[in-house]
Fold this protein.
Amino acid sequence: MKKFMVLYMASGADFEKAMKHSTPEQHKKGMEAWMKWMEKNKKSVVDGGAPLGKSKRVDAKGASNTKNGVGGYSIVQAQSHDAAAKLFGKTHPHLQMMPGGWIEIVEI
């Protein structure tokens, strides 16, 4: 089995909008959808991951604050990149909760 890092992506504006406008009920419903997806795919999920916070960029000039479109991650296993991609689809909780969002799957 190969391993893949899954990155839950959206624009900074979309993340801010979702956080600012979501109600406690919507948050609870979203978490329930995530738990249901994790249970359904438990044979493939190596690490359920977590939301990600602020970013630092380090280069030859030093460290600085930066922004990117990565909101969270998971690690899954599958026979192939295509098989990993099939674990995700238009009904995945990230895509439902984050209009305009997308998911990137990178082989480890």
Summary: The CA atoms of residues 12 and 68 lie 7 Å apart. Residues 24-40 form the longest helix (17 residues). Strands lie at 2-9, 45-51, 55-59, 62-66, 70-78, 102-107. Helices lie at 12-21, 24-40, 81-86, 93-97.
